[in-house]
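Recall that a protein's primary structure is simply its ordered list of amino acids. Everything else, from secondary elements to tertiary packing, is in principle encoded there. The following example makes that idea concrete.
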Amino acid sequence: MKTIDVGVIGVFGFRCFCRRFCQVIAAAMVTAMLLAALPAKGDVHAGDFLYYLGPNWTTPTTAVISGYTGTGGGVSIPGFIFYTNASAGTILSLPVSIGGNAFFNNTNVTRIVLENGAVNINDNAFWWCVNLASISIPDTVTNIGVGAFQSCSNLISVT
């Protein structure tokens, strides 16, 4: 790591007219770089899924699948994901929920297996998945939202 004396060279390689000014600019630049390295509060891509932490990112109780980016066919959805909270120094095992419209209009998915631990299938989660033929739902799922399987015209097996 290269050390630069901001009182001599300056922040951008120019001579500083004021040492304090350069120190303030350098501190602002370091702060901006550190903030840019923090994870976003939005969706996180993991495997074939997009997740967000619910109900909020500071005290999550579930990992909510908000989208699917895989190729389709048979899809296995994990029951839990592991979340590392670096600031608290903890690793949490969060149950998975399927978010509203998470698989909306995905014509490539033919079979869904939710693994044990998944807790919720939100409204319209699989809406317009016209090629979805079967889904396996574990006993841990306590809620299936309105229209979760709306317009899944080929769905013939729910176990």
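The longest strand covers residues 90-98. The mean pLDDT is 80.
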